């Protein structure tokens, strides 16, 4: 027997989203729960794949479709293509993962000249029938036949203009008939064929169009951006659903809702509806809808049904739902439900609330939140004391503040975004084809549409600031300007939007970092109690260390000492150290740096006490602390020039009567200063030329510096150990760890360990105490991975530096790769992801696994962590958990993400095992 290509809503397995898509599975589930869903059926994702493979609908599918339609006809008493009581359906896409607005729905399918007459008879409402007809022709024309909206819109607007009408609802049936006729002509002209009259032909074309949309550019881009791979979602299902009408009069409505407030998480009715309208009107933001609370007065009985629907949905799904409904002649139909996409604050609050309400357990409360989402909670907010007056206000559609230059279309946003500009995408309303503009912009501003409009939903999903429906702003995309009253905003002008309250400001307003809510603290404390991985921070200063500690860091996994070198008051000392002609000179410079470094470390240890602090000895090549060659040449040139001027002026002035009364700037002292500066710059230039390396990242850096200039490493080791000794003296518990970078052989470690042993003995006798600390190595070269057992004889801990290890494994330099060929590699599928963003588990990960195994074989209690950027990314964290690391270390703002991801890693490991 053939596989079954389709399932009616009465029979499909509501749990099988892979086969039926999310929308289809939920329509089945709701139907079988007894909720009022219009009759319909789902064509499976497998059928889609078969079609795309063979470019042909599988034999037998259309027979099945006839059978399914016959069942619907029986259930509804209507006939598909019938001259009386015609059955109309919607054709809707839906894959395993919800991709909002990615693939368009066709409504009112089944209309033709004959069924139109039937519909007029049935409803006794020609206006309604023609309205449905013109909507159908346009949607079918656009979605199934690929005709641009503008082709239809221009006719639509022409008829409106001719009739002197503003709102669509004011069109009468003759005008709508006129529009329908024009639309039919448009289709004929554009496709060279008349609009299909046969309703089964319509259905077949529509089904194929949905299938094809799976490989459309929009869908493919979206899947790439969100890493939706075939194991997550493969193919789209097609849902064929009996039409119900929210636009048959004032006892009809259509709306969307959330079972909780997606902005705050509050447990309350939330949503918007429109009386006498069809579903698309709410989503597209053509009319501005009313808050659902008003329905309690306007349609009390339907409101009661809606509250009941909402309660049943949450009780069944144990998850906040985002649902769509239509009220036809007083009867409520549910058309869709899916897990609600909410902002981070709302997800956190609803997790805590639902645990308290007994709806879910703590594990589910953690797992329902995507760790990356928490980044939003660390989103910038506008400084509270700014005195700017908003020039307009829209709806607070997605929280956080954003500032940038206005751009009026997505392509420009992408172009400018590449140059690093911060942008606000400003549109009348957004559509799925604008999606690439969202990625490029910091925030989105629209002049039309509600909190459930496309712009709002997509921005919320991405955690970008969005203000929607700011009706006072007149956006003129063509002239690339926007007007607010008589204020003119041109493309490129700076504006600030506040997605938390809907305010829009001219210019840039300073932002402040957000604070941690009590709810988030509770949630993350649950996460910590489950997670096996500890979370450390990559920080270099006491201030960021305190911030990291307040975000819950349990240590510092990477302190880069060169950041301390770069501070303005230290750089001259560092330069002296580099310019030193011999060891004595270098030691003299280091002696000045030493107390500064020691105090830095002491403050850092205090800020993180009692947790471990891993300090990396100097890593970058020395030339990084010197200006570059061109800059020096310019400066030397300028100084020479200046010297000539001084000399010239002095000579001129000395020929005057009273040379001893020369003004200050022209004395000899001044000249000497310039000569000194010149000499120093010249020395720097010589040093820069001497230090020149073809490939500095593979050159004289890391432990190699420690081998050539032991006095530098010794100074740093002494600073660390004395800082620790001072902490111990004042009874501040500390756990310093000395980490050596770029190691390739155990001999290097043994050598550095000798410095440590000597200095330790000196410091211990000087301070009269015993020091407690660890000595270890970064693992960031391929050789370190393959020789990890040997390294573990000297190293008590390993820390994977996955940035360098990735470069080494791929033999790419990151900058060149990302600027030149990596985008191509990703786009053409040569590489699935950018390995500098997503840890390459198959390649780099394999080396890591080898290093862990070899290292622990040598030293079973070897402590192992990761301090590369990947340490803050949930997928990499999961891998780190699975290969048995002890901790991950990441930048301060990613710590909450990492804490939650570490709990997920543990929970998902158990679920898999
Ligand atoms: P999306 O995936 O973009 O949400 P949907 O398939 O849900 O697209 O449909 C778009 C709009 O059409 C929604 O407002 C939906 O409620 C409405 N709609 C879909 N099917 C029907 C139907 N059978 N009757 C009435 N409205 C429908
Ligand atoms: Mg869709
Ligand atoms: Mg929908």
Helix and strand layout, with pairings?
Elements: E1 6-8, H1 17-33, E2 40-43, H2 45-54, H3 61-76, E3 79-80, E4 86-87, E5 89-95, E6 106-109, H4 113-123, H5 126-144, H6 149-163, H7 173-191, H8 199-213, H9 217-225, E7 236-242, E8 253-258, E9 270-275, H10 279-284, E10 290-291, H11 295-298, H12 300-317, E11 321-328, E12 331-339, H13 344-356, H14 362-367, E13 381-382, E14 392-393, E15 395-398, E16 401-407, H15 410-418, E17 423-427, H16 435-440, E18 443-446, H17 454-462, E19 465-468, E20 473-476, E21 481-484, E22 487-490, E23 494-498, E24 503-506, E25 511-512, H18 518-530, E26 534-538, H19 542-550, E27 556-560, H20 561-565, H21 571-579, H22 583-608, E28 612-616, H23 629-654, H24 668-691, H25 703-708, H26 710-729, E29 735-740, H27 746-767, E30 774-779, H28 782-786, H29 788-794, E31 797-800, H30 802-810, H31 814-827, H32 844-858, E32 863-866, H33 874-882, E33 887-890, H34 895-912
Parallel strand pairs: 3-4, 16-17, 17-18, 18-19, 26-27, 26-33, 27-28, 28-29, 29-30, 30-31, 31-32, 32-33
Antiparallel strand pairs: 1-2, 2-7, 5-6, 5-7, 8-9, 8-11, 9-10, 11-12, 13-25, 14-24, 15-19, 16-23, 20-21, 21-22, 23-24
Helix pairs in contact: 4-5, 5-7, 6-7, 13-18, 18-34, 19-22, 21-22, 22-26, 23-24, 26-27, 27-29, 29-32, 33-34
């Amino acid at each position: 027997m053939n596989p079954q290509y389709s399932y009616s809503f009465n029979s499909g397995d509501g749990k099988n989203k892979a086969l039926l898509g999310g929308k289809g599975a939920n329509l089945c589930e709701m139907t079988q729960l007894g909720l009022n869903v219009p009759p319909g059926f789902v064509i499976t994702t497998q059928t889609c794949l078969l079609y795309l493979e063979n470019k042909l609908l599988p034999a037998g599918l259309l027979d099945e479709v006839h059978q399914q339609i016959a069942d619907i006809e029986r259930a509804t008493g209507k006939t598909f293509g019938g001259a009386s009581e015609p059955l109309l359906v919607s054709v809707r896409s839906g894959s395993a993962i919800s991709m909002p607005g990615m693939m368009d729905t066709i409504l009112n399918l089944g209309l033709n000249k004959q069924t139109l007459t039937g519909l007029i008879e049935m409803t006794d409402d020609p206006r309604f029938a023609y309205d449905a007809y013109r909507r159908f022709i346009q949607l079918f024309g656009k979605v199934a036949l690929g005709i641009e909206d503008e082709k239809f819109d221009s006719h639509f607007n022409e008829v409106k203009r001719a009739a002197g009408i503003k709102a669509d609802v004011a069109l009468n049936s003759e005008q709508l008939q006129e529009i329908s006729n024009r639309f039919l002509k448009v289709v004929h002209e554009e496709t060279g064929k008349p609009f299909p009259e046969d309703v089964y032909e319509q259905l077949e074309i529509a089904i194929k169009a949905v299938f094809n949309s799976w490989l459309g550019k929009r869908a493919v881009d979206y899947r790439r951006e969100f890493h939706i791979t075939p194991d997550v979602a493969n193919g789209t299902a097609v849902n064929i659903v009996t039409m119900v009408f929210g636009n048959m009069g004032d006892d009809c409505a259509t709306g969307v809702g959330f079972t909780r407030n997606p902005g705050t998480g509050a447990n309350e009715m939330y949503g918007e509806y429109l009386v006498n309208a069809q579903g698309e009107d709410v989503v597209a933001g053509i009319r501005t809808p009313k808050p659902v609370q008003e329905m309690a007065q306007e349609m009390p009985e339907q409101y009661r049904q809606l509250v009941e629907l909402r309660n049943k949905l949450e009780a069944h799904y144990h998850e906040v739902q985002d649902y769509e409904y239509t009220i036809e002649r007083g009867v409520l139909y549910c058309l869709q439900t899916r897990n609600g996409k909410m902002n981070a604050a709302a997800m956190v609050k609803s997790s805590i609330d639902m645990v308290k309400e007994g709806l879910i357990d703590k594990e589910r409360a953690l797992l329902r939140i995507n760790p990356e989402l928490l980044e939003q909670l660390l989103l910038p907010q506008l400084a509270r004391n700014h005195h700017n007056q908003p020039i307009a206000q829209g709806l607070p559609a997605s929280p956080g503040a954003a500032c940038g230059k206005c751009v009026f279309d997505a392509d420009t946003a992408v172009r400018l975004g590449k140059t690093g500009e911060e942008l606000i995408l400003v549109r009348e309303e957004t559509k799925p084809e604008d999606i690439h503009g969202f990625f490029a912009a910091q925030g989105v501003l629209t002049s039309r549409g509600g909190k459930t409009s496309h712009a709002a939903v997509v921005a919320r999903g991405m955690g970008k600031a969005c203000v929607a429906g700011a009706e006072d702003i007149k956006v003129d995309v063509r002239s690339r300007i926007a007007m607010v009253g008589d204020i003119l905003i041109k493309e490129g002008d700076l504006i600030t939007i506040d997605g938390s309250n809907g305010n829009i400001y001219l210019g840039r307003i300073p932002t402040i970092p957000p604070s941690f809510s009590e709810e988030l603290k509770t949630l993350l404390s649950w996460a910590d109690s489950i997670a096996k991985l500890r979370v450390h921070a990559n920080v270099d200063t006491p201030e960021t260390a305190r911030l990291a500690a307040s975000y819950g860091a349990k240590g510092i996994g990477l302190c880069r000492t060169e950041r301390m070198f770069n501070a303005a008051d230290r750089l001259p000392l560092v330069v002296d150290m580099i310019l030193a002609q011999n060891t004595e000179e270098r030691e003299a410079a280091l002696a000045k740096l030493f107390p500064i470094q020691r105090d830095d470390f002491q403050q850092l240890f205090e800020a993180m006490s009692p947790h471990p602090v891993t300090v990396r000895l100097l890593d970058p090549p020395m030339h990084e602390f010197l200006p570059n060659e061109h800059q020096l040449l310019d400066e030397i040139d300028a100084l020479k020039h200046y010297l000539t001027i001084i000399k010239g002026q002095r000579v001129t002035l000395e020929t005057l009567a009273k040379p001893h009364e020369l003004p200050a700037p022209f004395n000899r002292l001044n000249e000497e200063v310039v000569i000194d500066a010149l000499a120093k710059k010249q020395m720097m230039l010589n040093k820069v030329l001497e230090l020149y390396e073809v490939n500095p990242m593979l050159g004289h850096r890391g432990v190699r510096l420690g081998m050539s200039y032991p006095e530098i490493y010794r100074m740093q080791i002494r600073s660390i150990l004395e800082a620790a000794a001072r902490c111990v003296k004042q009874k501040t518990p500390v756990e310093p760890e000395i980490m050596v970078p770029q190691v390739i052989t155990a001999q290097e470690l043994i050598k550095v360990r000798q410095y440590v042993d000597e200095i330790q003995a000196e410091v211990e006798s000087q301070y009269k105490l015993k020091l407690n600390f660890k000595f270890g190595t970064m693992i960031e070269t391929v050789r370190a991975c393959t020789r990890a057992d040997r390294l573990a004889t000297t190293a008590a801990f390993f820390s994977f530096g996955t940035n360098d290890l990735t470069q080494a494994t791929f033999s790419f330099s990151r900058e060149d790769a990302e600027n030149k060929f990596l985008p191509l590699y990703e786009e053409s599928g040569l590489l699935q992801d950018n390995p500098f963003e997503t840890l390459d588990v198959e390649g780099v990960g394999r080396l890591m696994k080898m290093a862990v195994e070899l290292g622990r074989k040598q030293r079973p209690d070897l402590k192992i962590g990761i301090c590369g950027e990947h340490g803050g990314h949930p997928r990499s964290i999961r891998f780190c958990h699975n290969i048995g690391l002890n901790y991950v270390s990441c930048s301060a703002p990613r710590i909450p993400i990492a804490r939650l991801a570490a709990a997920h890693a543990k929970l998902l490991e158990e679920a898999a095992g």
